[in-house]
């Protein structure tokens, strides 16, 4: 397919957009999930009939979706596929996302050498050995939250009372930031990652976040500690290897992205296990299965499904079609992780599955930096939760789920549970 001009005004964005080759009306994207444990059914239809389609996103642009596992891997590893948010065709999903990101320059929205410099700065801090060292602290946080839930009694909100506190506290403690007001960071994430947020709203939210982080940097310059922020200040900011803005942006995106995705995974993982008692009882009887269960939950739930936004700098040849140079790409992690050619019976969480190379953390040079920490958090959060509360269940089983309406990460606003 060849590209269509991006409708950049509100009037044009409301007009019907058609595929220039077939003349068919383009799908409006994103699609809604019909149920919480699988991507939209439309993904499977496209994977079979039109695996690299153009769609229309809320900003009026018409990027290509990539729906096959092999094609998603190939695109994300292709050096001709750019993550630079400043490129006009970058398929930002929210009205304020592209403008704010172009100003803040988070490293996940940059290309080498800018991306390489920041990633090398962080990669040693997120090795398996270092994240394993955090396991006792994460478990202690989980146990304290469960103590509080049992003291208060059912029902509880699994998001606000457990998942959000655990994930946010973990990443804040890593940087030596005060963890008392976890709701502040949740609110910043809600606005900065919301597809309906304007550029002014995103900039204001990031301004509040950077204000808090800037004060922390000043404190570390005056009195260094043993935390990751102190190390980054001493090793990179003081010798002027990075600017203060680069440091603030890097720490900010790591906190925001780290807490949001893990909160969603803890909540949805707990919901899946509560609705599948056979699997829950099996892993509780044999805790050695937890790592395999975690990997399968990551694959099946794919909460960061639409995070890999890209632009083709040159034609990208894929098994399902070609993305011409200069056009946007959305590499659908959920579609890839539910590709039956790669994962037979893809909707099943199967701890015995032989193929474990899912794409929940992406692929290529932008693969999630915090994946080792996320795995430890999920393991400790879910094992502590169901060891203490093996009868955990939805408090309102007949009610509809409170799905976040416009977030870049799939998840729930709240989940009332009893035990």
From TrEMBL:
Ranges that cross the membrane: none
InterPro entries named among the record's database cross-references: Cyt_P450, Cyt_P450_B, Cyt_P450_CS, Cyt_P450_sf
Keyword Oxidoreductase: yes
Record's keyword annotation contains Oxidoreductase: yes
Region forming the signal peptide: none
UniProt xrefs under Pfam families: p450
PANTHER family cross-referenced by the UniProt entry: CYTOCHROME P450 YJIB-RELATED, P450, PUTATIVE (EUROFUNG)-RELATED
Protein family (similarity comment): Belongs to the cytochrome P450 family.
Name of the molecule in the record: Cytochrome P450
């Amino acid at each position: 397919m060849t590209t269509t001009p991006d409708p950049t005004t509100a009037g044009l964005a409301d007009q019907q957009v058609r595929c220039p080759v077939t003349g068919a009306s383009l799908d409006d994207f994103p699609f809604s999930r019909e149920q919480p444990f699988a991507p939209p059914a439309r993904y499977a239809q496209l994977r079979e009939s039109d695996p690299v389609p153009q769609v229309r996103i809320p900003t009026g642009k018409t990027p290509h979706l990539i729906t096959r596992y092999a094609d998603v891997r190939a695109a994300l590893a292709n050096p001709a596929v750019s993550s630079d948010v400043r490129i006009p065709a970058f398929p930002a999903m929210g009205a304020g996302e592209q403008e704010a990101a172009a100003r803040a320059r988070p490293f996940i929205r940059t290309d080498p050498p800018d991306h390489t410099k920041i990633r090398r700065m962080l990669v040693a801090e997120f090795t398996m050995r270092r994240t394993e060292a955090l396991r006792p602290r994460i478990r202690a946080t989980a146990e304290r939250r469960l103590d509080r839930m049992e003291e208060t009694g059912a029902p509880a909100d699994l998001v606000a009372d457990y998942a959000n506190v655990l994930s946010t506290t973990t990443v804040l403690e890593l940087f030596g930031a005060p963890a008392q007001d976890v709701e502040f960071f949740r609110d910043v994430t809600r606005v900065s990652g919301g597809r309906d947020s304007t550029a002014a709203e995103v900039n204001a939210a990031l301004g509040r976040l950077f204000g808090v982080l800037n004060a922390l940097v000043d404190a570390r310059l005056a009195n260094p500690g043993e935390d990751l922020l102190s190390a980054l200040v001493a090793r990179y900011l003081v010798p002027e290897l990075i600017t203060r803005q680069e440091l603030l942006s890097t720490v900010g995106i790591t906190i925001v992205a780290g807490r949001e995705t893990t909160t969603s995974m803890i909540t949805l993982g707990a919901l899946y296990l509560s609705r599948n008692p056979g699997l829950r009882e099996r892993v509780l009887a044999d805790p050695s299965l937890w790592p395999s269960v975690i990997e399968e939950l990551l694959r099946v739930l794919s909460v960061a499904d639409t995070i890999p936004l890209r632009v083709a700098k040159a034609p990208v040849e894929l098994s399902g079609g070609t993305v011409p140079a200069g056009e946007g790409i959305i590499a659908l992690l959920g579609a890839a992780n539910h590709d039956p050619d790669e994962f037979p019976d893809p909707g099943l969480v199967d701890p015995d599955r032989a193929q474990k190379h899912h794409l929940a953390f992406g692929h290529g040079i932008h693969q999630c930096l915090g994946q080792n920490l996320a795995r430890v958090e999920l393991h400790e959060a879910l094992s502590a939760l169901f060891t203490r509360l093996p009868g955990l269940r939805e408090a309102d089983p007949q009610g509809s789920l409170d799905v976040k309406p416009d977030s870049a990460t799939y998840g729930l606003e709240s989940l009332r549970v009893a035990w």
